Amino acid sequence: MPDRSDDLFRAMADPTRRRILDLLAEHGTLTVAELVAEFPGLVASGISKHLMALRAAGLVTATREGRHQRYAIDADTMAEAMAPWVARYEAYWSDALNRLRDAATDS
């Protein structure tokens, strides 16, 4: 599987998209109208564009419910995309924290 972290971070670079993800994490699923209510000054077309970017990155899914679509986080894709990035830095931070612990115990 290719490293999708670039797509993920590009999609999450926008603060509005990060807030949409926060709201979806908090509520489970939301419609465009429900999201618009959380963003004064944005209209449905603006939210829809952000949702399209998040869907293209695989971060959210859409399910039709009557005339509306409900959006939800795709946690599996997020975890899959984050894994290579986290793995790259995990060894660094583990080593750094071990050195810090060793320095503290040597003092």
TrEMBL record:
Alphabetical keyword list: DNA-binding, Transcription, Transcription regulation
Q: InterPro entries of this UniProt entry?
A: ArsR-like_HTH, HTH_ArsR_DNA-bd_dom, HTH_MetalResp_TranReg, WH-like_DNA-bd_sf, WH_DNA-bd_sf
Q: Residues of the signal sequence?
A: none
- Pfam families in the cross-refs: HTH_20
Recorded protein name is Metalloregulator ArsR/SmtB family transcription factor
**SUPFAM superfamilies linked:** Winged helix' DNA-binding domain (SSF46785)
Protein's organism: Paractinoplanes pyxinae
Where would I find the HTH arsR-type domain in this sequence?
1-93
Which domain of life, per UniProt? Bacteria
In terms of PROSITE patterns, this protein maps to: HTH_ARSR_2
